[in-house]
Design goal:
With about 290 residues, the protein is α/β, with parallel strands linked by helices. Helices cover about 40% and strands about 20% of the residues. It contains 11 helices and 12 strands. Helix 4 links the parallel strand 4 and strand 5. The model has no long low-confidence stretch (mean pLDDT about 95).
Length: about 290
């Protein structure tokens, strides 16, 4: 299958591109810079120059392939306005790609976060949040899944709080970055909040399985760790960086403070049973031991 991938040079995207190529697919990957284009070529894929905001380029890419995997997102969490702008940009991109695929029965795999369900681990049957700081992403994903009624084999891989590789990535990576900047490995509240996690290489396998097998309108959970306590995450980060581990105000985490403070475990039992997906790479707390002081 020839696959158009957005975000193909990021932590997750580079793993997805390699996974696709290793399993006999060919890849056309969106590249927004010369450096990204060179990275795509070095991986064995074909670059398509353009950015997520270039809707004509996205349509052209989707028109040239047998399926699409969307991963690109501007991870600017510096302010609420920046987050809103990133969500709006992604929403327009998804709509443009989706319209190009209508009536083709081609697969379109997008991504989102796992939902928040008070008092228990979320499952694949739970709806995404459509309000709050990133509620727009939930609405965009719902629109993509709705394309199942218009001749698109659309599906969504829901990613946990932390997608990691070699100690980097996700919300745990943000905690480490904030710790380096502030001199404290901080956590919100009492740190008992649980965050799900997955290794990027395991997530990549699930994106491929969804592309190849997922029925139209379905959602899947790329969750290896159902919920690691944030205090445990901060403790490993503090030890690796040689910093004190302390509870800090939610404002320390900027516009993501409210999200960071939530308990949000998540299950992938249905995904494992249905698609035969089984994580094999290091879990988060083990992988964080790769953080360099």
């Amino acid at each position: 299958m020839r696959v158009f991938v957005t975000g193909g040079t990021g932590l997750i995207g580079s793993a997805v591109v390699a996974e696709l190529l290793d399993n006999g697919h060919t890849v056309l990957a969106l590249a927004r810079s010369d450096a990204s284009a060179q990275a795509v070529e070095a991986a064995g894929a074909e670059p398509l120059r353009g950015a997520l905001a270039d809707l004509d380029t996205l349509r052209a890419g989707a028109a040239r392939v047998d399926g699409v995997i969307h991963l690109a997102f501007n991870h600017d969490f510096s302010s609420s306005d920046a987050v809103e702008k990133s969500v709006a940009e992604e929403s327009a991109a998804l709509a443009a790609i989706g319209e190009e695929l209508v009536g083709s029965d081609r697969p379109f795999v997008t991504c989102s976060g796992t939902p928040y369900v008070p008092g228990r681990a979320s499952t694949e049957a739970d709806p995404l949040m459509t309000e709050g700081p990133v509620g727009g992403r939930g609405r965009s994903v719902a629109a993509v899944l709705g394309l199942s009624e218009r001749g698109v084999r659309s599906s969504a891989v829901r990613l946990p709080r932390t997608v990691h590789n070699q100690g980097s990535g996700g919300f745990a990576g943000l905690l480490a970055d904030i710790a380096r900047r502030t001199g404290v490995s901080g956590y919100p509240g009492d740190g008992a909040q649980r965050w799900p996690a997955v290794h990027a290489l395991d997530a990549a396998v699930l994106f491929r399985l969804a592309l190849e097998q997922a029925e139209a309108g379905t959602s899947w959970h790329a969750v290896a760790d159902e919920g690691d306590k944030v205090l445990d995450i901060a403790t490993v980060i503090g030890r690796r960086l040689g910093l004190p581990v302390e509870s800090v105000p939610a404002e320390t985490f900027g516009p993501l403070g409210q999200i960071f403070a939530n308990d949000q475990p998540s299950s992938s039992a249905y995904t494992r049973q249905t698609l035969g997906w089984e994580p094999k790479h290091p879990r988060l707390l083990e992988d964080l031991e790769n953080i360099q002081p």
